[in-house]
Amino acid sequence: MAAIEMKNIVKKYGDGFPAVNDVSIDVEDGEFLILVGPSGCGKSTLLRMIVGLEDITDGDMMIGGKKVNDLAPRDRNLSMVFQNYALYPHLTVYENIAFPLRLANKPDSEVDEKVREASKTLELDEHLERKPGNLSGGQRQRVAMGRAIVRDAEAFLFDEPLSNLDAKLRGQMRTEISRLQKRLGITTVYVTHDQTEAMTLGDRVAVLKRGVLQQHATPRELYENPANLFVAGFIGSPPMNFLPAKVDGNKVELPFGTLTIPEDKAAKAQGKGLLIAGIRPDHFEDASVMDADKVSDEATFNATVDVVEWLGNEAYAYIPFEAPPEVREQLTQLEKDLDGESMRTQLVISLDGASRIKEGDDATIWVDARKIHLFDPSTGENLTMDADNAGIVPGAAEALAKAEEVGKEQDAVDPHAATT
Amino acid sequence: MAGNTSGKTAVGTWIGFALIMLWCLFPVAWIISLSFKSEGETAAGSAQFLPKEPTFDNYKAIIDNPDFTRALINSFGIALIATLLSVIFATLAAYAIARLEFKGKRLVLSLALAIAMFPVVALVGPLFDMWTTFGLFNTWPGLIIPYMSFTLPLAIWTLSAFFREIPWEMEQAAQVDGATSWQAFRKVIVPLAAPGVFTAAILTFFFAWNEFVLAISLTSTTSSRTVPAQMSFFVGPDPFNPPYAQLATASVIVTLPVIVIVLLFQRKIVAGLTSGAVKG
């Protein structure tokens, strides 16, 4: 087991495509780190640089305090689970798991002992003599994990290991991976584009955009204190709502009405003109299902609900609104960066399951104004971020600007870049 | 209605099959039947299909003929060595073509194809001159080298297609698991490309086994003459009355190994061995 340190890592491909730009991330010994971002953000490239399948253009890759830039993959003693599992179809499950041990010329007795142990952990005992072609997706996934855990590697690397499974299995395997990692206590780097996996699995999460690190923090810090519009929009499901806002004193003027926000937040956002307010869906509530003493006029507004999706424990309500052209462009761009494609600007609200609001109703909605974030529309920076609880934010506002710059450079090299 | 149509199609298919089988196998059946006829029967110009008195005399005579057995050994030796070398070289070349980006990759592939376009007959003269100079005339290597060269292009094309089908992750996974590039190639890539390797090997073997023009031109004695060439020397005592029965027997014997090889390896030549490697 070992810590992994990435110091100013740069990856530029032969054609000049800058895939990873000056990324510095420390992974502590035994930590579960998630690399997350939309497709093409360089997360997989970064992982492949850790394992040695991709050359490092510049910067230092340290594993256990040793520089490994020029070491071949086999000399780094890391194990990796590939997105498509990459099992050896001509070998049985047993031999697939034993493969790394056989290469290390371990005696048969030791191989057998370790393979049995791994197969027991992953409940593969009854499949040991089968070939991967006869296994289900989930079983193949477990074989790939078995091959990774069977030897004493310095760290585990996962490259979107769950993306090929169906939703139910994905949830189960997610828990399984988490449990396994906690038990083995081994340093893990896990690449995903799925923010749920990022939130649930990681001790810390590094959010990347266009090969530039945006924020490196715990899931809670990312959720409560996103560094910029990109992180705010990426983390959380359903995503954070972005609304045009004008701040005057401690009043915030939104398309639906005016709210009062705490003084310290208001102070940070004075004199900036038109801003973007970010409010998470769960920071809204149907005023009629709340205790009367919590609801005040200053924090409520009335709006016509367009669509309601009732899920039992909660309900999502959609309220369309018109955004002024200055913010609209920024929001459309953000949506594109997040791999999304939204047709209209609308507010998503998470309501209590007990709420009786129906489609077409004119509802009274309460907002938790303390949880509002205010973003500068030109830089995307979160003006109201609590820097002490936001983890590592490299270059604050510059990270997003730099990603824009790199994005232009990438588009110049390859306008259809969709590499991950 | 639908069942009727598909029933008709099935009947048509089977009639077609039967016609093709008859067309292809009738000459073979004739040769087999001929090989069991006595010399007297063939000399008399017997018209019936089945032999009147089936006899193994032809087989005995052929096997006791030292020239023929010697030619059989030559054929086996030359065809096997040419196949082995061709497959080894083709595997390495095809792997490089499928995996590596290098300048002149297209050139290599087109050149390989160009070599295959030359008619063998056009090369017999120059080869004869060269081989007599180099002392390769009438030797095993004198046939192995051209056989290998003529089959390499096809083998390279077949194999590089197979290699391209194998997901690159397999090799990377092996490297991460602690394999050197060579180990990854030998333990993962080659077994996965096995159907391709067998296909290439069989094609090469057939070419070398059946080849006649080079075999007759580049040999002068039984020390390196292969069976197809040797058979042309079976003239018998009477030039106007060749020993048809013995020729037929030799043909049957020389066809047997080919049939055996196909039966042995046909199961290996099943595609889809890579299924299950990755999520399909």
TrEMBL record, chain A:
GO MF annotation list: ABC-type transporter activity; ATP binding; ATP hydrolysis activity
Q: Give GO BP annotations, semicolon-separated.
A: carbohydrate transport
Q: Where is the composition biased (Basic and acidic residues)?
A: 401-414
Give Gene Ontology CC terms.
ATP-binding cassette (ABC) transporter complex, substrate-binding subunit-containing
What are the boundaries of the region Disordered?
401-420
Keywords (A to Z) from UniProt = ATP-binding, Cell membrane, Membrane, Nucleotide-binding, Translocase, Transport
Residue intervals of the ABC transporter domain: 4-235
Q: What is this protein called?
A: sn-glycerol-3-phosphate ABC transporter ATP-binding protein UgpC
Q: Which organism is it from?
A: Nocardioides glacieisoli
- Identify the coding gene: ugpC
Automatic annotation (TrEMBL), chain B:
Q: Name one GO cellular component term.
A: plasma membrane
Under SUPFAM superfamilies, the record lists: MetI-like (SSF161098)
Q: Does the keyword Cell membrane apply?
A: yes
Q: Which UniProt keywords apply?
A: Cell membrane, Membrane, Transmembrane, Transmembrane helix, Transport
Transmembrane intervals: 12-32, 76-95, 107-128, 140-163, 188-209, 244-265
Localization of this protein: Cell membrane
Primary location: membrane
Q: Which family does it belong to?
A: Belongs to the binding-protein-dependent transport system permease family.
Protein name in the entry:
Carbohydrate ABC transporter permease
Say which species the protein is native to: Nocardioides glacieisoli
